[in-house]
Amino acid sequence: MDFTTGNIFKKLVGFMLPILGALVLQTMYGAVDILVVGWFGTDVSISAVSTGSSLINMVVFILSGLAMGVTVLMGRYIGERNERRLGRVIGGAVMTFAVIAAVLTVVLLCFAPQLARLIQAPPEALSKTITYIRICGGGIVFIIGYNLVSSIFRGIGNSRLPLLFVGIACAANIIGDLLFVAVFGWDVAGAALATVLAQALSLVLSLLVCRRIKLPFRMTRKDLVWSGEVKRFLSLGFPIAFQELLTQISFMCLLAFVNGMGTTEAMRLASSSGYGIANKIVAVVMLVPSALMQSMSSFIAQNVGAGKERRAQKSMGFGMLIGGGIGIAMTAAAFFGGSFLASIFTDNPVYQMKAAEYLQGFSLEAIITSVLFSFIGYYNGHNRTLFVLFQGMAQSFIVRLPVAYAMSKMMPDSLVYIGVAAPAATVFGIIINLVYYVIYSRKEMERTGELQT
């Protein structure tokens, strides 16, 4: 898709919707795991899947941030009409992520007990959390491979094929969960195995499709080297990945704070399980901002490559309007319907109450994160990923973690104020991004000669 001409709103929505659909289906992986384990497993199993998937999701999100460098660099070359360099970018990415996958496999298999204790898995759920981490770790190569292929397709402006792949994988995951957990009774191990096998199927299908369709690049074995393109996409992706690492660490700290909350053992388990359920709902709420950021990064990268700064700025504005409009409905659903949404995952009224508490504090995030993520997509498309890193660090360590820690000690039996930490940090981030935009956007307009036009 060529994003440098035509109606911005139509093209942005047309590119974003398949990405949003793919994110919805990916989110269903974890939601279905919790749902099936909640129906056919035990309360302890819910906590184990919630805690273990938090760690695996952290790894996936970090590597997706690193792969964003591939997406942005490919978009820049397409905007510059420099397609001949795409094959070398992809070859270097394959080599790099293969090494990362091998290292992570060893780490997750060998150090699962230490990792489970690090994130303070409840003692009664510790062994099952370790099982979940090890099984997912054994199949991490499939998860990484799928996310890399999806980043490559988004880099060339194709968001429909990743949607197709993840749709098939999601169906496979649902079938696997029902078979392994409900029929075979494998509990947490069955949920993890279903997730890994579904991702493996998705990766195999995507590679088969790559061999059969015409792509705007050609990659040979000679491209499978660590060339200068590796340094370029790593310099773009590493700050995004590191920011994601810090963000995920902050959320892991939140999980640790929550796991330690409660004046009794029963309340601590309720807080952990309720927070885990709430996070599955939060993942759905955050899909629109996430889709916006990914879409915006590719959209703006092409326009920056083509020297169209004014169009890039208009694209960011459209993204804020689209995300903010949808976010209003999401905020209302999270604030007023938290207990109902939690009842989808569990019939335990205490867990439902705890999930609803967190969602009430978190709910405003659905609106304001669309504004923040549109800014981030704009800066990613301009290769200003170091700024994205710094503003993310400021949000996490100046606002989110201090507020959450203070609230966990002051209100140990309520998750409402823990939830407030996220929107408070986002508001702080928007202020930082707005100040930088006023300065940076003018310089870009001067550079492209559009300031006077």
How many β-strand runs? 0
**Unreliably modeled segments:** none
* SSE run: HHHHHHHHHHHHHHHHH
Major sheet, described briefly? none
Q: Structural class from helices and strands?
A: mainly alpha
Distance between the termini: 27 Å
Rg from Cα: 21 Å
SS field, number of helical segments? 17
What is the helix fraction of residues, given as a range?
over 70%
Fraction of residues in β-strands? under 5%
**Average pLDDT value?**
83
Shape: globular
Structure commentary:
The protein has 453 residues and is mainly alpha-helical. The chain has helices at 8-40, 43-79, 86-110, 112-118, 126-138, 140-155, 160-183, 187-212, 228-259, 265-285, 287-305, 309-336, 338-343, 349-362, 365-381, 385-410, 416-448. The longest helix is centred in the N-terminal third of the chain and has 37 residues, at 43-79. It starts with 7 loop residues before the first helix and ends in a 5-residue tail after the last helix. The mean pLDDT is 83.
